[in-house]
Design goal:
- The protein has one helix and 39 strands.
- The chain is mainly beta and 489 residues long.
- It has five domains: 119 residues, no CATH class; 83 residues, Immunoglobulin-like, CATH 2.60.40; 78 residues, Sandwich (Immunoglobulin-like), CATH 2.60.40; 84 residues, Immunoglobulin-like, CATH 2.60.40; 104 residues, no CATH class.
- The protein has a four-stranded mixed beta sheet with strand order 4-8-7-6, with no helix packed on it.
- It is elongated and about 160 Å long.
- The N and C termini lie far apart (147 Å).
Length: 489
């Protein structure tokens, strides 16, 4: 092998010829080339991260350290401490750390640097130490007791780890110290094994005894059945306190005729009694609404209708709407603000001639009431013609009519006023040309003139000279004039 030949790391055969001028001998051996040069490393001092203030997370290549080696170790560098969020705890100040760099051939280089923890105070939140307390029972002073414990302390930096694993809470005031009525400074030291924090608050000692109250269950008033008007002192509640609040008691509901609506059954209500020092007492009671049915008046659902034109049936249409409904208790307030009227029969249902039950449900959002009536469907005839059998012809004397409260009663005329004219009893309509029919009741009365009053129109008999002789009918007539039919009963 030529002198100066370059041999890589590894094993190489070395052959040598030994000779004189006559003889020679060949000798062999092996040359093992190794890398014994340690890595070239540099490292810088670092500061712990703000979110993990007492933990070391390691150096960053090219930022806080360099590593140069022709045969670097693929497993990277190591330290003489445990890194990471669960590693060694670093106290405030600078902590020396050694970095190790080892190449593939076991050559080691070291680098010393410092990890700095900049904390100077325990990173915790101060609990609220302000409080108002009452003097001890029967005494003019309050015996001091700390208002917080270690479990009340929370971290202001979540990634901070307590040195020693926990914190302690130590008030500077001795437990059991007697505090007079007034304001007192309360100082508490919160610490782990390395850092601490001082928290302060104020203790106000005063009369904090709440009022003594009792209250009874009540029922809503009949005239306001779903409104709560409040309790009555000495009747449905009692209030005892040496310093009562002049504004009186309050509730967790709005009372009065325009207040909260109370559904049927028992509703829990809380009464609050607060004295002049802000001491509050509460009392739970129940307000009962005894309603089981919507307090409304059922409209008149009874009616008589005719079959539809040219059909043997009547198409059902509701006879009332929501605005036809009136309250039976004026002080009741509709839940939801209004009522709905819902017939159980589908609109447009075909009803045959006869009598049919009409059921209507009147309801608000909580209560309801069922109202019923009857629909009498008639087939083109008046009620008398459809319900009574035909009457035979019989002579009937003329009548005069007198008015009573309930009906008009026929009375025989005096003999001198009787005229001879026929009396007709008929059960069949008089057929005239008809395209539209209007029905109204016809009574056997002489011609009338009408006078108007506030309540109703009153028929008045015309003078005798204006009365005319006319046939008397006792049934139903269909009279048709100019393409319009009128049913006279």
């Amino acid at each position: 092998m030529a002198i100066g030949s370059k041999l890589d790391v590894g094993t190489h055969l070395d052959t040598v010829l030994i000779s004189d001028e006559v003889l020679s001998k060949t000798c062999i051996g092996y040359i093992v080339v190794q890398d014994t040069t340690p890595p070239n490393v540099t490292c810088d001092d670092v500061t712990t991260r703000s979110f993990l203030p007492n933990s070391f997370l390691g150096l960053s290549l090219g930022v806080s350290y360099t590593y140069e080696d022709s045969n670097p170790d693929p497993s990277g560098i190591t330290y003489n401490v445990t890194i990471g969020p669960g590693g060694d705890l670093f106290p405030p100040g600078q902590t020396p750390v050694t970095m190790y760099a080892v190449d593939l051939h076991g050559n080691r280089a070291t680098c010393l640097f410092y990890v700095e923890n900049t904390l100077t105070e325990l990173p915790v939140n101060c609990p609220d130490l302000n409080k108002t307390v009452a003097t001890d029972m029967g005494l003019p002073t309050y015996s001091y007791t700390p208002s917080i414990e270690a479990s009340d302390v929370t971290k202001s930096t979540f990634g901070y780890r307590y040195h020693g694993g926990a914190v302690s809470v130590d008030p500077t005031m001795a437990i059991g110290s007697k505090l007079d009525v007034g304001t007192h400074l309360d100082t508490v030291l919160i610490s782990d094994e390395v850092l601490s924090k001082t928290c302060i608050g104020y203790i106000v000692v005063q009369d904090t005894t709440p009022p003594n109250v009792t209250c009874d269950d009540v029922t809503t008033r009949p005239f306001l059945p779903n409104s709560f008007l409040g309790l009555s002192v000495g009747v449905s509640y009692t209030y005892e306190d040496s310093n009562p609040d002049p504004s009186g008691i309050t509730y967790n509901v709005t009372k009065g005729p325009g207040g909260d609506l109370f559904p049927p059954g028992q509703t829990p209500v809380t009464m609050y009694a607060v004295d002049l020092h802000g001491n509050r007492a509460t009392c739970l009671f129940y307000v009962e609404n005894t309603l089981t049915e919507l307090p409304v008046n059922c409209p008149d659902l009874n009616r008589t209708v005719a079959t539809d034109m040219g059909l043997p049936t009547y198409s059902y249409t509701p006879s009332i709407e929501a605005n036809d409904v009136t309250k039976s208790t004026s002080g009741y307030r509709y839940h939801g603000g209004a009522v709905s009227v819902d017939p159980t029969m589908a609109i447009g249902s075909k009803l045959d001639v006869g009598t049919h039950l009409d059921t209507v449900l009147i309801s608000d959002e909580v209560l309801s009431k069922t109202c019923i009536g009857y629909i009498v469907v008639q087939g083109g005839m008046s009620p008398l013609a459809s319900l009574q059998p035909p009457l035979p012809y019989q002579p009937t004397p003329p009548f005069q009519y007198i008015q009573s409260r309930n009906r008009t009663h026929p009375q025989p005329l005096p003999p001198e006023e009787k005229d001879s004219f026929p009396s007709i009893r008929s059960t069949q309509p008089v057929p005239l040309q008809s395209t539209q029919r209007t029905s109204f009741p016809y009574q056997q009365t002489p011609p009338f003139q009408y006078t108007q009053s506030r309540e109703r129109t009153h028929p008045q008999s015309l003078p005798p000279r204006q009365q005319y002789n006319m046939p008397i009918y006792e049934s139903s007539l269909d009279l048709c004039f100019s393409s319009q039919c009128t049913n006279i009963t």
